[in-house]
Amino acid sequence: MRVFLTGATGFIGSHIIPELRAAGHAVLGLARSDVGARTLEAAGVEVHRGDLDQPATLASGAAAADAVIHCAFDHDFEKFFENTRKDERNIRAMGEALEGTDKPMLITSGVGIGTPLNGGPATEDVLNPHHANPRIATELAGAALTARRIDVRTIRLPQVHDTTKAGLITPLLAEARRAGAVAYLGEGKMRWAAAHVSDVAKLYVLALEKGEPGARYHASVEEGVSGRAIAEALGKGTGLPVRSVTADEVAHYFGWMAPFAGLDMTASNAWTIARLGWKPTGPDLLTDLAAMVYSQPTLEDLNA
């Protein structure tokens, strides 16, 4: 297949490219800049110029391909709500370009959207349309297209990591440096699901080749790693002190990430593995945090 890949120069997209090519697929990668275009060309990828702020440019890429993998997202968290609406518009535009065909489109969400109302790990069968996370807009956009018989499949991401990045843990590290300590709330019992980026990239390709219209797949390998364990690993890596904080202290130590301080984001992958035969082999989160490159991240690093 010729696969249109958004986010092709980003953290996850750049790992999806070699997996697609190894499986015999051609890649049409979205690039918004000359630098991005050159990066894709060097990786043997055909370039499609476009921008997340111009849905028509994404729609034309989708129309030119046999399938779409959409993993691009604007990670400016100061405009998080606005950026989820942007994602909704882009998904709708690409989906409409595929209407009347059997071409699949994979979209990207977060495992937290699948958390049951009565608590417990997120599961693939749960979709709460009233979820408080603004990222629900992504899944509602996908569901609306599915209702129009467009083949949309959703990949829900946990904290995706290697030794250079680790999902929300990367900006959490920036907040810890600002505050002068790595913090966890209370006893640090909240847990976050996680997966190595290489395993996540493999799952996208499996979902493309073996997935079902309307299905949701969890890219979580570890069901949950505790906030205290994460904080202790960051403290050891950076040399920053590690401390338990109260709810009144969260805003100081977590900054804009305060709402995540006590948020449990665990996820099951049992259904995904049973359906797709996914066999994760990458390192676990704490192993990668122990070997993390703890140089100061740049804004470009955080938004890539």
Helical residues, percent: 25-40%
- Structural class comes to alpha/beta
How far apart are the termini? 26 Å
* Estimated radius of gyration: 19 Å
Number of discrete helical segments:
12
**Structural shape:** globular
Kindly estimate the percentage of residues that lie in beta strands according to DSSP: 15-25%
Short structural description:
The protein is α/β, with parallel strands linked by helices. Helices cover 39% and strands 18% of the residues. Helix 2 links the parallel strand 2 (26-31) and strand 3.
Protein architecture, described:
This protein is of the alpha/beta class. The chain has helices spanning 13-22, 34-42, 55-63, 80-98, 136-146, 169-179, 197-210, 227-238, 250-254, 270-276, 285-290, 299-303; strands spanning 2-6, 26-31, 46-49, 67-70, 105-110, 152-157, 159-161, 182-185, 191-196, 216-218, 222-226, 242-245. The protein has a seven-stranded parallel sheet with strand order 3-2-1-4-5-6-10, sandwiched between helices. Strands 7-9-11 form a three-stranded mixed sheet. A two-stranded parallel ribbon has the order 8-12. Strand 4 (67-70), helix 4 and strand 5 form a beta-alpha-beta unit. The radius of gyration is 19 Å and the shape is globular. The two termini are 26 Å apart.
